[in-house]
Amino acid sequence: QVQLVESGGGLVQPGGSLRLSCAASGSIFSIYALGWYRQAPGKQRELVATITESGDTNYADSVKGRFTISKTSAKNMVYLQMNSLKPEDTAVYYCYAAGEIWPNNYDYWGQGTQVTVSS
Fold it and tell me: What is the spatial distance between Cα 50 and Cα 87, in angstroms, rounded to a whole number?
């Protein structure tokens, strides 16, 4: 089992920045990918960014050039630096981890942190 706890959400004005953090604990040795998803009111949860164990990253088109995902080499922390925030970035942001304990794969989710972009 892996536990994920997010922090860093809040209210920010358009054009501002926030940094989300996610602390992983438990069976972190099993993690092979980390990421961030978000869900806005009335919408489905969507991928924001992912990062693999080797450091390969993937971003949603809507956040490319504005958001940066990073992690510690120990895989116990993952971050999302969000710059040039827009009102449409308002959502609950969820930390995600993909793990493998052979022969099974597991998906883990944090409880979410609210990000509100508004003037």
Answer: 22
Beta strands in the chain (DSSP E): 2-7, 10-12, 18-26, 31-39, 46-52, 57-59, 67-71, 77-82, 91-101, 104-109, 113-117
Predicted pLDDT of residue 27: 86
- The first and second tokens of residue 88, run together, are 């449409």
Tell me the backbone φ, ψ of residue 28, rounded to 5 degrees. -70, -20
What the block records as the tokens of 42 is: 């009335």
pLDDT at 29: 86
Helices (H), 1-119: none
Instruction: Check residue 76 and report its DSSP letter.
Output: S
The residue type at 107 = D
In the chain (119 residues long), the average pLDDT of successive 10-residue segments reads: 94 97 91 95 96 95 97 88 97 95 91 96
Q: Is-contact 50 57, C-beta < 8 A? A: yes
Gap between the Cα atoms of 11 and 37, Å rounded: 18
